[in-house]
Amino acid sequence: MVFEFAEGRGGHNVREFLGLPGEKGWRGKLVCDDFSGYKACFELGVTEAGCMAHARRKFHELWANHGSQVGENALKLFGELYDIEREVAGVQPPERQRIRQEMSRKVADALHQWLVGQRSKVPEGSATARAIDYSLKRWVALTRFIDDGDLPIDNNWVENQIRPIALGRSNWLFAGSLRAGQRAAAIMSLVHSARINGHEPHAYLNDVMQRLPMQSASRIGELLPHRWQPAANS
After folding, report:
1. Is the bond leading into 123 cis (omega within 30 degrees of zero)?
2. 111 within domain boundaries
3. Structure pTM?
4. In a domain, 219, yes or no
5. Residues 139 and 64 in one domain
6. Residue 234: band (very low, low, confident or very high) from pLDDT cuts 50, 70, 90
7. Which of 137, 154, 171 is the last residue of a domain?
8. What is the mean pLDDT of residues 182-205?
9. Residues 23, 88: one domain?
10. Domain containing 41: what range?
């Protein structure tokens, strides 16, 4: 897991991180919400994959905050998509893609048809209209996962991993400087990557800090979390 620190939320920060534009820039599929900073990436070869959880969340807010019948009915259809995802969680990507195309596509088509029908019944500018428009305007991206067994239906896993950082920002408030923020991002990248790879972060950092002065530059990669092995005497 890699964290990047930037002074603002401009799209150029995203493009620079991905190496765009450029022949060696990343050209994969990016699972994301509707943050405007990503938009230019899609014009430079990156494929947009929408986060279904963000679309669902808007209807949940309608239902939870206003008792909306539209919100409740939408949640049922979103729930059917997630029921299928739970069934395919443990299968290989080719089989996951096959099941999604057979089952998820029908549910998604029904949801899309229902959303189009509901949109004509609600006033412009209403919360319900905004929730529906979010999904309809990004429908191709939101349903891209159906035809790709390697894609998740949403980016909830990533959001759960970065939640401690997101919660901490309001407490930390200031990094001190651009360089300090970049250093903090590098440390967070190591700590969270260690945890994801099954290491106890403190033990990992303690071992690495002791070995680092004696580690040759050509072997520094061995200390990265996905390659690290504890010292024999630890």
Report:
1. no
2. yes
3. 0.85
4. no
5. yes
6. low
7. 154
8. 93
9. no
10. 11-49
Question: SS3 for 112?
Answer: helix
Structure tokens at 195: 């945890």
β-pair partners for 6: none
223-232: long-range contacts (C-beta < 8 A, 24 or more apart)? 224/193, 225/190, 225/193, 225/194, 225/196, 225/197, 225/199, 226/193, 226/197, 228/194, 228/197, 228/199, 228/204, 230/203, 231/207
Q: Are residues 85 and 115 in the same domain?
A: yes
C-alpha to C-alpha distance for 146 and 9, rounded to whole angstroms: 30
At 50 the three-state DSSP class reads: strand
What would the two tokens of residue 96 be?
């996951």
Is 100 a member of any domain?
A: yes
pLDDT at 173 over 70: no
Dihedral sign computed on CA atoms, order 216, 220, 223, 226:
negative
User: Residue 161: what pLDDT?
Assistant: 84
